[in-house]
Amino acid sequence: MGRRRKPPEGASRLDGWLVVDKPLGMTSAQVVAVLRRTLKPLRIGHAGTLDPLASGILPVALGEATKTVAYAMDGDKTYRFTLKFGEQRSTDDAEGEAVATSPNRPETEEIQAVLGNFVGQVRQRPPAFSALKVAGRRAYDLARAGEAPELAERTIEIKELILISRPDPDQAEFSVTCGKGTYVRALARDIALALGTVGHVAALRRTRVGAFSENLAIALDNLVALGHSAAAFEHLLPVETALDDIPALALTGDQAALLRQGRAIAVLGTAGLVSRDGDAGSPAPLSDGTVLCAMEGTRPVALARIDAGLLRPVRVLNL
Length: 319
Prior knowledge:
With about 325 residues, the chain is an alpha+beta fold. It has three domains: about 15-75 and about 210-240, Pseudouridine synthase, CATH 3.30.2350.10; about 75-210, Pseudouridine synthase, CATH 3.30.2350; about 245-315, PUA domain (Archaeosine Trna-guanine Transglycosylase, Chain: A, domain 4), CATH 2.30.130. Helix content is about 20%, strand content about 35%. It has eight helices and 20 strands.
């Protein structure tokens, strides 16, 4: 999210999420800048950076939705990507320089046979050209300066990895659903190495981030064309869309008022867990550390945490 910017002149109150279909060639920050100028929200941010060479789902938070960005970023993500065999690039995608080549091209059956090795809790070494920090500096800055940091492996989770098509011997198209911190470029690199060759990501598209999917998306150009109009705001999703994986807890009016004031309330005596549409939900243990979305009717009041039998507000939602 970075430091808070001064709202643009003529800024208006907008609260909710836009699911933008990010075009190729733009950074996520550039998309946010375009929408800041077009919609003039009081606050704006995004959930999950996409590289310029990637297209697809970029959830953009407006107003009070910016308080839920961290929860959106924690959700699983789904990508489609094309792995091009035979050439390794410095960035592990098409942007970098060629650093190694191989004449080997795996058979489709060989590809299918190794995919299971990449599903579940696996170890992955992030690309040298990444935003991770090494001794206080971004890895990509070091790599561009010729220092090429060797980043440590870390554990990631890949939920599903499917070979979609094999258009020719040089390429294979995949779909992957993965957890936070996964680098698809590194995954493609490692699949190629496991097949006795080298490779890089030739095309990448994100199709889902948590509850945000392609069927909810609108192209950036279309959104800009709609401008600050009622038609544009028809695409605005509720703030709580990003909180689908967080249990909701129904409150009375008095309890909601206390939370809005930043005060803790006793967990006992609350109306209980509910679903997003206000119906009673399945019972679940309310143990210390559990984060809940406190609700007054169908309106979210705050993100709150259970602490020693009390419900303490973490982020109050002024809706």
